[in-house]
Amino acid sequence: MDFTVQTWKEQLQASFRQLKHWLTLRSGDMGHLSYGALAGCTLLPLLEYTFTAAQQGQSLPLSAVMALGSIAGGVGGNILAGQIQAWHEAATQGHTPTETDILAWLQTNLMQQEDLRAALDSMLEKLEALPQAQETLPPTDWQVFAQQLHQELRDLGSLPRFQAYLEGSGVLVQGNHNVIAAHNSIAVGGNVAGNVILGNKYEHLDPNQTDPATLRTAYLSHILDERNQLWLGGIDPRAAAEDNDRLDLSAVYTALLTESTEREQVAGSVPGLIRDVDRQPRRFSALEQLNQQRRLVLLGDPGSGKSTFVNFVTVCLAGAGLESARLNLQLLTTPLPRDDEEQGRRQRDEHPQPQPWNHGALLPIPIVLRDFAARGLPKASQRATADHLWRFVTAELQAHALGEAAPLLKKELLEKGGIFLLDGLDEVPTADHHREHIKQVVEDIARSFSRCRILVTSRTYAYQRQDWRLSGFAETVLAPFSKGQMRQFIESWYVHAGRLRHLNQEDTQGRAALLKQAIFGSPRLYALAERPLLLTLMASLHAWRGGSLPEKREQLYADSVELLLDVWEKQRIVRDGNGNIKVIQPSLEQWLKADRDKVRGLLNRLAFEAHSKQTDLVGTADIAETDLVMGLLGLSDEKGLQPKQLVEFLSNRAGLLLPRGVGVYTFPHRTFQEYLAACHLTGPGYPDEVAQLARTDPNRWREVALLAGAKAAAGSSYALWGLVEELCHEAAGEGTREAYWGAHLAGQFLVETADLSQLTRAQAGHLERLRHWLVQVLTEPELPAIERAQAGRHLAQLGDPRPEVMDVDAMQFCLVPPGLFKMGTDRAPKDDEPFIQTILESSKPDHIVDVSAPYWLAQYPVTNAQFQEFVFDGGYQAVEYWIAAEANDFWHHGRVRGHRWDDDKNEYSWMMRGEPYNYGYPFNLPNHPVVGVSWYEAQAFCYWLTQRWRHQSRLPSSWEVRLPTEAEWEKALRGGLELPEIPQISPLHSEMKLTLNTLLRPGRFDELMATPEQINFSETKIGATNAVGCFPDGRSPYGCEEMLGNVWEWTQSSFGRFDSTKSKDGPILDPFFSYPFRSDDGREQLDRDDYWLRVVRGGSWSNDKKWTRCETRDRNFPSRDLAIYSFRVALSMVFDPIAEKSS
């Protein structure tokens, strides 16, 4: 259907229903908001028609061009047509312009291009835009809008064309006094009722004459405008200097993932069978978690996107309530980006599944908890309640002339529900019982506003102290950015920033491609880009530096600080309403007559002092205005400067310090506070002072110390190793808590900063001592589990010295003597899904099993380093190791066929490979368990190792290396009815025996219930595998470690055979090997086809408690190779299945 002028007119009424929303949009401090909004709404039907054509791959519709030309011809019409063509091309590439983009272009060009303004005037007149607008707006709204438009038309020189209509339309000012209208505002005096436009804000002054729906609309418009912005001072210095200091958050937001994972039932050829362990764990998005949990704490590192998520949810819910065409629930539930670029393109083409949100356009109440703590809490002696919070909300609304909306909002929250979005629990000071008060308030909100959902955000390590936790709240941790998230952010950022800076499409695409290439081609930059804050800074610096980036975090922060200082340093040009230069403000250096280095030194000192005194260990510290102003004045040689003048100067500049309330400044983010404090510590006291601070108070000084060391090391390797020596100067074994922290931080510092390719003898000695210290850090429970896991990653990168972990021939084994043990349980955990409950029930009943033959079981799962020896030795090429796999068509000519779930295709896919599937960092670190291996690969490794050790005369021909049976596996974890007083642990050697040389004691029958400090599972929040040895408190009675959590372990045993002919409506196993356990019933037979499911044991890093129990069984096809599957080996006499039986 063609687009005609008549079509255009018919669609205008619907378009003008959005006029009030357009009046809430802003683009910097530009004027002519009313005229721009009117023109934008008038253009909207034509633009939407062209955008629809673009999204369908069609060229710019000729009918739309002709319709435009018939009402807005001449030079101005050509300018407008050319811009519509550019917008159409952007929409063709998937970057449809937003209302903010359209309004910004109109406001920017109105004063600059007289021909364009004449064309727009013609369009408004011929389409009868003013009568349409008056018909759509309520009378009071139309009255104030027309007053403002009258003034703007006069400024633009267009009033004569519309004067008759406006002055004859009943535009009167209510009250007893006149209204004087200045540029871009209406000043109100006397008794005025109704509505006014103040600056770019549309405000209601008399709620007694305003219906509840209008008050609600005003509130939603206010929070949408307030929250739909991303600070631009650190993204584009030119934009910041020109007062265009914000990006449209909704245009660049990228959906966030969490560390929480979901196990889904697989569809397709095996319905209902492979559940919970067959697929690579899929991470929940932050929105999915918010959708599922009525009470949620969203945790994350600094700069991980917590506040951005709060703001984005607020914007989308507010926009949905305003019936916005773009800011709505569809935007909120945008599908997650794919990691692979080709998959991402296919995803866009195939209409992928949106993220779930089942709660509609909830009323959002966003609150910054730090502000509430500062202005809304009672005295320390009083109990804090939800009423204190609501008084604070009311006061904040009153400050924006919306106070009368508060009772209506509260009524809706109580009767219908809504969502409280409470940002920054960790930023609430500890002084005066503030944090205790906040906990009381949040928990009281949950009781008082029982229909409402609640989201709270906090830094991870701060919240996980027990005294911070909120009762009844679920927790989830934000995951680092994936490759797909990075790609989407970069593309969206450059498109939007390009529009603001009027770059052409080819230029923005080219710059985005260069940035992606730089990040994806550099492991260091990729690691930095995993944090959204740093990726934003990288995008900024990439543009600012002309297409290059620093690769180290310290240099990235240094350049970012320089970027922010540049805002202060540059002259600032202020223009009048006609675009003429009104005044040129001097830079800070010119104003103070003090050089930049002195200013920087002062900021360094203020940051250090604020960081030192801050009662809270997270968030940004407050800096008193008097300290900042007097410090700056003290640098100046200029006589006659007054503090008041400096305060005024600083308040108008978005630089490295931002005003926060009356008389208080703070840094834009804790990152900058920490970096400047680090710069202060690189002075005369380095490295002694920074090392002492970090060792004694690591939660406060950890990041500062790492940055100080990196900055100092940039000038000299001696500075680098001097800090390492001060952090870790004791010999390994001298274990104070300070020493553990010092070694841990020294390891992180070297990994982030040092080049270890060329070391002096002294440096090599320091490194060797540190390696042994890190072994002690990760293998002793002195530091929290998350820190031990991180130390294990650093140790892998610095060189793990443990031969039992890195050398296949130095594996340690634990002797498990023969005898009785209790197997299974009578108390299986519960699950809502019947099929899962069936699997859990397969561990019943508990019964006594006699393992009559002794065996040695590996202390750890096989590591990547050990498995690589199999790969390098040609293990995948030797046919004799792959007899079962070849017979079942899973091995051909040196390559094994992996059978993996493809999330993109929603089906299984096959992959031929000659080594384990590489799941990337940290799964591929050498001291982590090997993952991405199937049962066939585990078997092949055992055959290879048996042959290798027999050839080395280390293993008698009557012994073999094999996978343990599930009875052997469970006994090694639980222990028998008799246990050794001292576990017997040894590497393989020729004198090794199968007899115990220690006293025995009675065993216990308790079923192990592990904690996050004992095993790596979902509650530990590591989110991946860990270096083996990190959980010493989870050691079994025989010395085996990490049998629960970290990775599922293949066993030799079969679970049963999947019968596809009987599994039409659900999985049927025939036979099914249930309990009591018997090793002679066929379950230990190896020459089976791929339909014989093999038992896996122990649970993994992604599983919850019900799967990480010593008795829990699970199963999978032997061809599966996920990031949760590994194995450990057993040494025994050649296996006789008759030797194990139940009693």
Give a verbal description of the structure.
The N and C termini lie far apart (81 Å). The strands form eleven sheets. A five-stranded parallel sheet has the order 8-9-10-7-11. It folds into four domains: 5-207, no CATH class; 230-262 and 280-479, Rossmann fold; 681-801; 808-860 and 940-1142, Alpha-Beta Complex (paralog of FGE (formylglycine-generating enzyme)), CATH 3.90.1580. Helices cover 44% and strands 13% of the residues. Helix 5 packs across helix 7 and helix 32 (670-680) packs across helix 34. Residues 169-208, 232-245, 263-278, 341-349 and 575-579 have low confidence and may be disordered. The protein is of the alpha+beta class and 1143 residues long.
Sequence-ordered SSE layout with sheet pairings:
Blueprint: H1 5-16, H2 19-22, H3 33-55, H4 62-71, H5 74-92, H6 99-110, H7 114-126, H8 129-136, H9 139-156, H10 159-167, E1 195-198, E2 201-204, H11 212-227, E3 230-231, H12 237-241, E4 246-247, H13 249-252, E5 257-262, E6 282-285, H14 286-292, E7 295-300, H15 306-321, H16 329-332, H17 341-349, E8 364-368, H18 369-375, H19 386-398, H20 405-415, E9 419-423, H21 434-448, E10 453-459, H22 460-463, E11 474-477, H23 483-500, H24 505-520, H25 523-529, H26 532-544, H27 553-569, E12 572-575, E13 581-585, H28 588-592, H29 596-613, E14 623-624, H30 625-635, H31 643-651, E15 658-659, E16 664-666, H32 670-680, H33 688-696, H34 698-713, H35 717-727, H36 737-753, H37 761-779, H38 785-798, H39 803-806, E17 812-816, E18 819-823, H40 834-841, E19 847-851, E20 855-858, H41 864-872, H42 883-887, E21 891-892, E22 895-902, E23 907-913, H43 935-951, E24 959-962, H44 966-974, E25 978-980, E26 985-987, E27 1000-1002, E28 1048-1058, E29 1069-1072, E30 1092-1097, E31 1113-1116, E32 1125-1126, E33 1130-1133, E34 1140-1142
Parallel strand pairs: 7-10, 7-11, 8-9, 9-10, 28-32
Antiparallel strand pairs: 1-2, 3-4, 5-6, 12-13, 14-16, 15-16, 17-20, 17-26, 18-19, 19-34, 20-33, 21-22, 22-23, 24-33, 25-27, 28-29, 28-30, 30-31
